[in-house]
Specification:
The protein is of the alpha/beta class. It is built from four helices and four strands, in the order αβααβαββ. It holds the Pfam family DUF3734.
Length: about 170
């Protein structure tokens, strides 16, 4: 498995436009305490997969900042010298695109069973679908019109209905 949350599909696409990206992670980094061996195994899977998503997200944020810094540095070189030095600002001296990422982690439903990642029964799926719809509605309402400024990469994280600190 290379990625359970393929952010590159949305974030690597070249554009200078402002972008709102909504990422839904089926596993949460922060979760309740566990009481059984089965729950600890579920939590282990959640941590493994959600950590992978957050590492990928940190990679994209670092790359975005590096590109922004390189663009600023390149803009300091006189325009007539840029071709000789192999400097291309790719779209002129415009600022790097603004990216706002809404990261919503599935918090489960109150009576999820152990090994929930493998429970595809109709009642479980219907209940999770409704919980997800409610969580998404709440997250979008909370986000409102908050967007990244030009050149910024802002992340607003939610786990279920709980807003986590913007990272």
């Amino acid at each position: 498995m290379t990625s359970n949350l393929p952010l590159e599909a949305a974030l690597d696409e070249p554009t200078s436009d402002e972008r709102l990206c909504i990422a839904i992670d089926l596993f949460r980094r922060l979760g309740p305490e566990f009481r059984t061996v089965g729950q600890s195994m579920d939590r282990q899977l959640e941590l493994l997969l959600s950590s992978q998503s957050w590492r990928a997200l940190q990679h994209f944020r670092q790359r975005h900042e590096l590109r922004r810094q390189l663009r600023l540095l390149g803009s300091q070189v006189p325009e007539q010298q840029r071709p000789r030095l192999g400097i291309s600002l790719g779209g002129g001296s415009k600022a790097e695109k603004a990216i706002t990422l809404l990261m919503l982690s599935h918090a489960g439903v109150p009576h999820d069973t152990e090994m929930r990642a493998f429970d595809f029964s109709r009642p479980s799926l219907a209940e999770r679908w409704e919980a997800g719809r409610s969580d998404m509605s709440h997250a979008l309402e909370t986000l409102g019109s908050q967007r990244a400024a030009p050149g910024e990469f802002n992340v607003h994280a939610f786990s279920g209905r709980d807003a986590m600190a913007s990272v």
